[in-house]
Amino acid sequence: MIRIVKMVFKPEMVDEFLANFKEDKAKIRNFDGVEHLELLQDKNHPNIYFTYSKWKSPNHLEKYRNSDLFKGIWAVTKPMFSEKAQAWSVDSIEKLL
Prior knowledge:
The protein has helices at 14-29, 58-65, 68-77; strands at residues 2-8, 34-41, 48-55, 86-90. It is α+β, with helices and mostly antiparallel strands. The chain has a single domain (2-92), classed as Alpha-Beta Plaits (2-Layer Sandwich). A 4-stranded antiparallel sheet has the order 2-3-1-4. Strand 2 (34-41) and strand 3 form a beta hairpin. Helix 1 (14-29) packs antiparallel against helix 3 (68-77).
């Protein structure tokens, strides 16, 4: 399963977010069920970022979202947003085509 999260940051908070992500990314990548984690930046809007992650199953993602690790990261990150984050859980259909 793939999870894409769009985050729009207050411009003055971007550097702090990036520093926090640099500290936390290894912890997230090592969480049970995480197969891939990548941070992407919008080409035209430098304060818009996306996380692109792959999970073994929806249950693994839910365990992460209910974990102390996620709750701690989200509590620090959420106040940095200039608008509400958006998230999509998707499946690759490439193998079906």
